[in-house]
Design brief:
Helices cover 87% and strands 0% of the residues. It is built from 7 helices and no strands. Helix 4 runs antiparallel to helix 5 and helix 5 packs antiparallel against helix 6. 28% of the residues are buried. About 3% of the residues have low confidence.
């Protein structure tokens, strides 16, 4: 008969130890698995749905309308100011015309916020949260402490990026509510000034002939609108500053703060214990203590 092989006690007990470990940690394995599946199949669709973010999207669209109105009003005011005789108002007209490019930057930032509003939810609940749950499951199975830290920090980072746009919108709305009346007044005053200059020019042209009436009408309009021109330019600059702060600077500051926080959270080193590594380290520490206790 063939000689029977005798397994060491450690090998015979290893399957029983694994089964006992799985039985003892069954709850810590099932719950992260269910959380990963729920995040992947349910929360990802909900967080990336425009219907869920309809209030935030409506706020962004309202801000977009305000930017377009400011841009159109500045262009109309610039064109009207150029009708005033002389070169005194020409620099202001050029300055108002240049504001259109700045308002375009604000408009691009608003569109970017609108797209990120749904993309960040998809990224967090479709990728980051499931990966974090998987890392936690591996930590439970293999006792890798680095994976447990990584799981918690990935989950925290996923929740943080979901909050970037809503937090920045909340801060922006607080500032815009303070200056909204001033912005509306700026748009209205620009439209009134442009209409006043054009109407005065048209009335003068009907009464005295085209060229002479146009000159007299514009001169008459200039005397009434000259005081409004400088004040209107300052109002446009103030409105542009508010829109830049609320649409560009605040989201960037919130994003940078979250990136810094994520960098702090994710700056970890994953150490995977190898078989026999703990015994070797314990042996080295014991040898070191024995060496230190030897008489000099």
């Amino acid at each position: 008969p063939a000689p029977s092989t005798i397994q060491p006690p450690s090998l015979r007990n290893e399957p029983n130890m694994i089964q006992e470990k799985l039985r003892r940690n069954a709850l810590f394995l099932i719950l992260p698995l269910l959380a990963a599946l729920f995040s992947f199949f349910v929360l990802a669709g909900v967080a990336s749905s425009p219907e869920v973010h309809k209030h935030s999207i409506a706020a962004l669209e309202e801000k977009q309308t305000t930017v377009l109105e400011l841009s159109a009003a500045s262009a109309a005011a610039s064109a009207a100011i150029t009708l005033i005789p002389g070169d005194a108002a020409t620099p202001i007209a050029e300055q108002l015309a240049d504001l259109s490019s700045h308002f375009l930057v604000v408009l691009c930032a608003i569109y970017l916020e609108k797209y990120l509003l749904t993309l960040t939810g998809f990224l967090a609940f479709k990728i980051l949260i499931p990966v974090a749950c998987l890392a936690y499951i591996l930590n439970v199975l293999f006792d890798w402490r680095g994976l447990r830290l990584l799981a918690g920090k990935l989950a925290a980072f996923g929740l943080l990026i979901v909050l970037v746009i809503p937090v920045s919108l909340q801060l922006s709305n607080m500032i815009e509510d303070t200056y909204q009346a001033s912005i509306d007044a700026t748009i209205q005053s620009a439209q009134d000034a442009a209409e006043e200059i054009e109407d005065s020019a048209a009335e003068g042209g009907d009464e005295k002939g085209f060229w002479a009436g146009l000159l007299d009408g514009i001169t008459h309009a200039a005397s009434g609108a000259a005081d409004k021109v400088g004040r209107m330019a300052n109002d446009f600059l103030e409105a542009l500053a508010v829109m830049l702060v609320t649409s560009c600077i605040i989201p960037i500051l919130v994003l940078l703060s979250f990136v810094w926080l994520a960098k702090t959270l994710l700056s970890i080193q994953i150490q995977i214990p190898l078989p026999g590594q703990a015994e070797r380290q314990s042996g080295r520490r014991t040898a070191s203590r024995v060496e230190d206790q030897k008489p000099q």
